[in-house]
Amino acid sequence: MLHRFYFITDRKKFKKPFLDTIKEVLDKGIRLLQIREKDLPDNELFKLTEDVLKIAEGYDAKIIINSRLDIALLLNLDGVHLPENGLPIEPIKKKFPNLIVGKSCHSLECGLQAYQDGADYVFISPIFQVEGKAPPIGVEKLREIVNKLPLPVYALGGINKFNVQSVLDTGVYGIASIRYFLD
């Protein structure tokens, strides 16, 4: 069972030290975290992930890492999240059936393909305007996608306390965010 609120890390957007922020989010009740620190060298990302695992002990949280199947396996993480043009899902699920595998998608077609390939969930994004990202799809398009995908859909991108209800009203499975859970 996947949790409905999915926190994605980005230490550059944190106001507090990284591990303090992780503890704060866990204390708020978030139990699904993705380590997404794409700019870190391999050894630093590995160490940071180990540190997150230590902090998350006792919280019954699921820890997922962005793109790094190798680190997910070495540290026995709960899952790996793949970018739209990342590793193929099917061979990962075949070899590691208990590993949670998610995929970032920007269209219904991508979501349907992810489902066929065995993904456990997808992100659909961006819902609202986010600087440096593709044009937003909006809540109506999100609703269409949610109604046509037979797997959990997390909405991502520009979600805040003013628009979160309109996102939830689409029937989306959950909310994925960096900033939303920090406020």
TrEMBL record:
Pathway where it operates: Cofactor biosynthesis; thiamine diphosphate biosynthesis
GO BP, one annotated term: thiamine biosynthetic process
Cellular component, GO, one term: cytoplasm
SUPFAM superfamilies membership: Thiamin phosphate synthase (SSF51391)
UniProt keyword terms in alphabetical order: Thiamine biosynthesis, Transferase
Originating organism: Sulfurihydrogenibium yellowstonense SS-5
InterPro entries for this protein: Aldolase_TIM, ThiamineP_synth_sf, ThiamineP_synth_TenI
EC number: 2.5.1.3
GO terms, molecular function: thiamine-phosphate diphosphorylase activity
Protein name: Thiamine-phosphate pyrophosphorylase
Domain Thiamine phosphate synthase/TenI intervals: 5-179
Domain of life: Bacteria
